[in-house]
Amino acid sequence: MSNVAVFDQNAGIGVLAESPLAHVSGVKGGHTPGVVIHEKAFLGYLTLRGNSADSSFCSGVEQALGMPLPTEPLSLHQNQQKGSSIQWLSPDEWLIVVQGGTEYETEMALRTELSSHFAVVNISGGQTLLTLSGSAAQDVLHKSTVYDVHPRNFPVGKAVATNFAKATAIIRRPSEGTWELIVRRSFADYCYRWLIDASQEFGVDYE
Amino acid sequence: MFHIYCPYCGEHREENEFRPKGQAHIMRPKDPESCSDEEWADYLFFRDNPKGIHHEMWVHATGCRKFFNMTRDTVSYEILEVYKMGEQPKITAASRVVGGEK
After folding, report:
1. CB-CB under 8 Å, A147 with B63
2. Could you report the predicted ipTM of this complex, rounded to two decimals?
3. Same domain, A38 and A131
């Protein structure tokens, strides 16, 4: 256990929390919308830093999270049971996304398991996650980012940080028909409006 | 618009994901207290402006946010190689003359 002052930053259900997209209303795109956009609000986010060449660091992370540390560039690992994921951000930095309310226990589990030189920072609330699904989800991404999202370059289990619209975002592909966008809180409204506008021609549902 | 290879992400990305950070391999004087004003000013302010081979530092600003080095030809803008921090360039002005490429 590292000697670091930590506290549960989640204020709990007694305090009203607002997602960065709390002000936008739903959009209905007819009977068969080509794109379905959904905000997964209030997830827990942690950044993890450490040395992946250190085997005790890798095994400690796997022990704490129940999924292996992604050491391959741009890879994404998921723990379906806990509904959590960890993605490669850079050679010594990872992003952990957990169900809202479990970020503190995840942080404590990591601090218990890890002993070498590492850092865990709770960055929950700084961003939000949008899921894109539907038959035209990939077309909307083609319109919005210069990154090649064709399946031959973007298989399931890949996650990249890149430019999205004129902002930055993390684009992830957790499963065959679903895309995830992690956008900065301050850019959430802009990205939402961009997505709705770009999806208009295919028909869009936002809930 | 061109593509730049990020040695950390391991793939080519669009130019606008990157930011140039100036000349690479600038050594800070080991003992700043005892170096002359001229040496210190040279370290702090003066940069090379070669015609031809130039070693530069770039950052993958919207990707992995890591710094890396690049050897570029300032005449043709061609990117000759990309290498990680701490590594030395394979292509230098001297090696090009010896190799007789240009």
Report:
1. no
2. 0.89
3. yes
